[in-house]
Design goal:
232 residues; mainly alpha; 2 domains; 8 helices
Length: 232
Amino acid sequence: MDGTRPRIVRLLCHIALPLYLLAVTASASAESIAAGPDWHAFQEALAAGERHARWWRGGWAAFHAANLSRNLYRATASGSTATRFDGRVDSIRSSLALADLALRPPPHGAARAQAASLDPAQPDSGETALMLARATAGEESRRRAPAAQTSGFLVNAAAGGVIAIIDDRPGDGVTSFLLGMLVNTIQTRTQPTQMSRYLASRSGDNAAASVQGDLAIRWTPSSRGVTVRLSW
């Protein structure tokens, strides 16, 4: 029995060592994939995101500017007291929407400008590009998340509340709130998602996936056996 133990240990080591090396190789391969983006696809995704952001921002700026002009006209030229009141309220809402577009542009323009300074030949450029892609995708997610509509909800609730309470028109106040939230939701959900889609399409780019090799050989006198644990 004593002579068989060393043979069992050697046999298990011969089996475990190749598996361990395989795990280490797989880990290095996964890290290589994560650190080395497809530069052409990366640049294309950035360009598409910037293009989408430019059209999105310009289109919604034109929409809110047109609404502001219409509401200013309603606030001053309408013969109806209720319409003039609504025009004043909606003028403030349109002005806030324009200010939000001016102060919070999508991140793609800045990300593309930063990516233009990267040299693919540099050893750390791949990791930097991937970090930039993930930061841009994270900002895309934050801008489209339900929490991003909190400010829009508060503005529209205030506008609807003013009409409903101060001008004593509850029905019109509810309608104003619902229409405002509809516009806010469409504006939020039509923002660019190119970098999120780029990361989702990358082979091996999964933040939750990791490959690790861990080899442990433990002698257990009580059971008189050898336990080999290999996990990745």
